[in-house]
Amino acid sequence: MRKRFLSAAMAVAMACALTACGGSGGTKTETTAPAAETKAAETKAAETKGEKAGNTAAGEVTLKVFTNLPDRTSGQGLVEQTLFDAYMTENPNVKIDVEALDDEAYKTKFKAYAAGSQMPDLVSVWGQPGFIDEVMDAGLLAELNKDDYKDYGFINGSLDGFSRNGKLYGLARNTDVMSFYYNKAIFDENGWSVPKTYDELLALGEKIKAKGIIPVSMDGGDKWPLYIYVTDLMQKLDGKGVMQKTHDAIASKDFSDPTFKKATEILMDTAKKGLFQTGFETTDYGTAKNLFANGQAAMFYMGSWEMSMATNEDIPAEIRDNIRVFTMPVIDGGQGGETDIAAWNGGGYSVTAGAVNKAEAIKLLNYMFRPEGWTKVAWENGVCMSAQDFAQFATGKETEPQKQFIDIVSHASNLSGTPIGDMGTSEFKTISEDLVQEAAIGKITAKEYLKGLEAACK
Questions:
Q1: Of 99, 76, 45, whose CA–CA distance to 176 is shortest?
Q2: Are 457 and 424 a contacting pair, CB within 8 Å?
Q3: Would you list the DSSP string of 235-280?
Q4: 126 - beta bridge partners?
Q5: Hey, is 134 helix, strand or coil?
Q6: Coil, strand, or helix at residue 326?
Q7: pLDDT tens, 150-163?
Q8: Do residues 231 and 249 touch, judged by C-beta distance below 8 A?
Q9: d(CA 211, CA 228)
Q10: What residues does 301 pair with on adjacent strands?
Q11: What is the model's pTM?
């Protein structure tokens, strides 16, 4: 399996050598701190101290961190950097060398690293089959001591995607909930109400377009938000069991269940009716977000990790203070209700198996995820909902999106689990992204989309 993973990665690595992949899009930081560690990790540290490239001198350690959070001044990137800086202050012998790229560039460079002889010490990972299964199978991630995290407050099931055969290979960062962000001021000014049904959402879109405003800003260029949209629609059509249904379809190479076709047709019809901006299929994440953040779009379809827009001072106050959220409206005839939502535990971190400074990397990881670490800093800054219990850190000064997401999660009756495109192999994910984009713009039919998914199953 490792050979198969690395052979595919090698091709990417060669491509990277000819493109911008070779350049570092990241930042440099220093950091250090105490934390729980396994005895095996301590032994390894003693054996390698001062002998490998990551150690600049006796007692000094350089940790290489590769992350998908390039913005170090706001959102999750700020939380990450804050923790790195705190670790450095407490452990002045440790320097953290950070390389940060956005999601798609990150995944490409990750494959290039995997094909090489030395990966960074600590890396961002996604606890979903489409990313992590082949990485674990290739032996690229270090096993963590599960007992270290018994008192860390991880939500039940949040670490399942980072585990294999009873062993733990990573820690989840957040609880992710997909939603529509909307500008309350624009809604109030025009007398618009939050739609309760999908038909009402489409009707609202027509009213918004009549005002010369984009109804929903959609990141179709990166493609994955589109298959999450399909998953969200499936959740409203079925109400439960969406992830199991997808798992079974991939295993049997059979996507004939009518829920898949119906959800795809709704997405196609939605795009055709103009709920998304013109050219959404070529709009990237940043551009889609900016269309909403500068008032050109009344809504923005994205995950709960963007709740930090409400505290981002780069966004004008008249927009920032009016950001609210609602989840996918119910579909007439569907089995799912308002409290059946698209939610999962996605991004996180792993220490690499061949890390030069594995012991120190584990210490950093454990330091980051102490309850008073990521969870506290993220919540107090209104950034996201962590995969750990954050109730103890309520300040009473939460933003409106924070309050709404708490309400959404606390009243949820069913969660979708991993989105459809992330349930198979990395190849299945890539093909899923291409196919859902083609379906959304009407280039292929819903039937052709599903046949393509079946062909992509291995």
A1: 76
A2: yes
A3: HHHHSS-HHHHHHHHHHHT---SHHHHHHHHHHHHHHHTT-BPTTG
A4: 347
A5: helix
A6: strand
A7: 999 998 889 999 99
A8: no
A9: 28
A10: 180
A11: 0.79
